[in-house]
Write a structure and sequence with these properties.
There is one protein chain. This protein has 785 residues and is α/β, with parallel strands linked by helices. Helix content is 46%, strand content 7%. The protein is built from 33 helices and 13 strands. The strands form four sheets. A six-stranded mixed sheet has the order 6-11-7-10-9-8. Helix 20 packs antiparallel against helix 21 and helix 20 crosses helix 23. The chain starts with a helix and ends with a helix.
């Protein structure tokens, strides 16, 4: 008989026996290529090959495995309405050589792939094996639906969980299985009684995995076995899937911790999902300090700053796909950045993507050991042993690893995140710290940290270190495979962040247009923290009718950055609570000294400083460059080898200089600008004590500005005028830098007349200074709408 005639005959036979086949037809399943142990038992009892062939619902003659026809072409079925899963994909890997895969979802055999006519004459054999062991593909070659390489460990994937549940539940008797299914149904509302009871054991396992998912099905099966007094079976299932359970508990930990982003003061009902607002900042493998050299008036800062090129940028989730110079994968990645650049949020995004299987699936575990946690252990020796092993530390913060030995295995690929490196305030001895060669030797936290980074403990771990550059620069370069730096937002990313944050298109457009009216604010929004502040402030402002007529004032934003970073310093590094954020006299003096240093640097047209400069003003290196959040370290040392530091932006140096001048004027009634020896303008006002009036202070600042090159004192003058506004010095800084009992600065009407007169004069003599003088006047006089 020719192939076409044979196919037609088979189809006629299928139509005649359609009702009989429906009786035997199994429900649609994700695992059509598998059969359960109960199926095999039924087949043995019946001993009827023809009925088995009908139960498979195949339109082709079927010969069971083990018959004489086994040497013919094999057949594997892909059943209708079956979602794509790992097990159906692995049938492609486990079919016999030369086997033909027939997709029974085709209603017409002519739709099936055509082979040579000779192949159709061969006897077709159906194979229905147990779930095969997954073939681990090369991580570098395989990508998932998110375009990410890497696959799950065989003991953490769907096939292993399926087989484990099936193996354990198969050992139940008929009555125990019925009781198990009823208990499973009663405690799981997402599944119906019919779905639990219909079909055989294979269908039951298939259905719960399809409806509940891998992790939830596994946990619920374990709990149900315990509820029906089959604790031995529950323990057996836990042991079979221990690696998957540990991963699941870590997943849940990171999802709970990072799914919602907590920004500023958390308000009930106002939390945002990280997925809804997150925009990935630019991360470069070529760090130059992360300081933006752009300036509203200066084409270049006094000390040149480099900016990485676009071809050095790398995605957050690809950090551990990078390779060293010799082509081997990186083990230790160091990520640094300026304060407010988004390191903490980047850690949360990485952990959340891993937990939700969006990236880095090949990492079996992601364990976060913050240096803040190590510092807690170091300080609280009364509650914990002074010496602990690294496994005891992991078990203390992640109890799911208790008794787990996976981290000892050479092929266990996992990640340790050492974030907040700047929180560890004790010096680390990289040369003389004892070497630890196993994970169970107890040692001081200082020694543990050094050995983790050395690689002598947790040998199979990838290490991700994050911290401010002035803190992480102490790590010897031989322990770091690659250094990355978070650069912040590009102009397009700033707009994308605002668009994702607000549902109202008109509000988004208003905010985008409004903050761009002040070029310096647009530049500063490169920091995600400032971008968040822009969104929060203007969202509230635009609730009021008529807001947005005038451009926003710049000084209040810089004052807010100062107060937020100082409060964060007290909370993050010194453990102060929300109600304990009162600035001490030492805190105030530190800011005043930093402002004095910034002012002296501005006078000599310098933008970088060194450790000896800090000592000159009575400042400590770590307090200024790490804890303050206002300065950072530049990676390129000075020609003489000295470590180089600067403010987070040159405009912040100008702001701190203006803050110092204003503070000396308000607290000590001193005009530090007087007697500078620069060109003097004619005195417009005469007063008994001119040196102590606000007008005299501003007049000295105007003299400096107009007698210096364009851009030298322009922003300094604008910030000084902005601080004269009662909104800044009496509202924002009251209770922090200044006493609440201090009166408002008087004589602002005189200052206003001085600036107006100066603007008129400048239109003739200094036309290029007029716009900034108008901005200075607006900073002082404009009230919030």
């Amino acid at each position: 008989m020719d192939p076409d005639t044979e196919v037609q005959s088979i189809l006629r036979r299928g139509e005649e026996e359609e009702e009989e086949k429906k009786k035997w037809k199994r429900p649609p399943s994700s695992y059509g290529s598998m059969r359960s142990d109960s199926d095999a038992m039924e087949e043995d009892d019946e001993g009827n090959d023809e009925e088995v062939a009908e139960a498979c619902h195949s339109p082709f003659p079927v010969v069971l495995p083990g018959s004489a026809a086994h040497e013919g072409t094999g057949l594997q079925l892909i059943r209708a309405d079956s979602p794509e899963t790992l097990c159906t994909m692995t049938t492609q890997q486990t079919k016999p050589p030369g086997a033909l895969v027939i997709d029974t979802r085709c209603s017409d055999p002519g739709d099936c792939p055509e082979d040579d006519e000779d192949d159709m004459d061969e006897v077709l054999v159906t194979h229905s094996p147990e779930p095969p062991e997954p073939v681990e593909p090369d991580d570098a070659m395989q990508t998932d639906e998110f375009g990410q390489p890497g696959t799950l460990h065989p003991e953490q994937d769907l096939a292993h969980v399926f087989k484990s549940i099936q193996t354990v539940v198969t050992g139940l008797t008929k009555d125990e299985l019925f009781k198990f299914k009823m208990s499973f149904y009663q405690w799981e509302t997402s599944i119906t009684l019919q779905q639990v009871m219909d079909g055989d054991l294979l269908d039951f396992v298939d259905k719960i995995l399809e409806i509940l998912g891998q992790d939830r099905s596994l946990l619920h099966t374990i709990h149900t076995l315990e509820n029906v007094n089959k604790k031995d079976k529950a323990e057996e299932l836990q042991n079979l899937c221990k690696r998957a359970l540990v991963r699941f508990r870590l997943n849940q930990c990171w999802i709970r911790k990072y799914q919602i982003i907590r920004e500023g003061v958390v308000r009930a009902g106002k939390q945002n999902l990280l997925d809804n607002i997150y925009v990935e900042p630019q991360i470069s493998t070529c760090g130059y300090g992360g300081v933006d050299p752009s300036h509203e008036f200066r084409p270049h800062p006094p000390s040149p700053l480099q900016v990485p090129s676009a071809d050095t940028f790398v995605s957050l989730n690809n950090l551990f796909r990078l390779q060293k110079d010799d082509g081997t994968p990186v083990r230790t990645v160091l990520t640094t950045g300026m304060p407010g650049i988004g390191m903490s949020v980047s850690v949360g995004r990485f952990c959340l993507d891993w937990a939700e299987l969006h990236a880095n699936k090949d990492l079996q575990f992601v364990i976060k050991l913050s240096l803040q946690s190590f510092w807690f252990l170091r300080k609280n020796t009364t509650h914990l042993s002074e010496k602990m092993s690294i496994m005891e530390v992991i078990e203390y913060y992640h109890p799911e690893f208790k008794g787990i030995t996976y981290l000892e295995e050479e092929d266990c690929k996992f990640l340790i995140i050492l974030n907040s490196f700047d929180c560890y305030q004790a010096p680390l001895d990289w040369e003389n710290a004892p070497v630890i060669n196993d994970n169970y030797t107890q040692a001081h936290p200082d020694v543990l940290i050094v050995n983790i980074i050395r690689g002598t403990v947790l040998r199979g771990a990838r290490i991700w270190i994050l911290g401010r550059r002035a803190a992480v620069s102490q790590i010897p370069s031989q322990y770091i495979d690659i250094t990355t730096e978070i650069q912040g937002f590009s102009d397009e990313m700033k707009d994308e962040y605002l668009e994702k944050r607000f549902c109202e298109a008109q509000l988004t457009e208003n905010i985008k247009a409004h903050y761009k009216r002040v070029p310096t604010l647009h530049l500063l929004a490169r920091q995600p923290f400032v971008c968040w502040m822009v969104a929060t402030v203007f969202e509230r402002c635009y609730r009021y009718r008529g807001y947005g007529v005038h451009p926003p004032r710049l000084t209040p934003f810089y004052v807010t950055i100062l107060t937020v970073q100082t409060n964060r310093r007290l909370q993050f590094y010194f453990g102060k609570g929300e109600n304990e954020l009162k600035w001490s006299s030492d805190d105030k003096q530190q800011l005043t000294k930093m402002g004095k240093m910034a002012f002296k640097m501005l006078e000599r047209n310098a933008s970088v400083f060194f450790e000896e400069d800090l000592k000159e003003y009575g400042l400590k290196l770590t307090d200024v460059t790490v804890f303050s959040g206002l300065c950072t370290e530049l990676p390129t040392a000075a020609p003489n080898g000295r470590r180089t530091y600067c403010f987070i932006h040159f405009t912040f140096q100008e702001f701190m200089a203006a803050l110092y001048v204003f503070t000396m004027f308000r607290i000590e009634s001193k005009n530090v600008l007087e007697g500078s020896g620069v060109l003097h303008m004619p005195k417009i006002f005469t007063a008994k004590d001119q040196t102590r009036s606000a007008a005299a202070l501003v007049q000295c600042a105007v003299e400096r500005t107009l007698s210096s090159p364009l851009g030298h004192y322009e922003m300094f003058l604008r910030f000084l005028c902005g601080m004269l506004s009662p909104d800044c010095h009496h509202n924002q800084l009251s209770g922090y830098l200044y006493s609440r009992k201090s009166p408002k600065v008087s004589g602002l009407d005189e200052v206003q007349r001085l600036l107006e007169k100066t603007i008129q004069t400048a239109q003739t003599n200094n036309g290029d200074r007029v716009e900034n003088l108008k901005e200075c006047l607006r900073e002082m006089t404009q009230e919030d709408e």
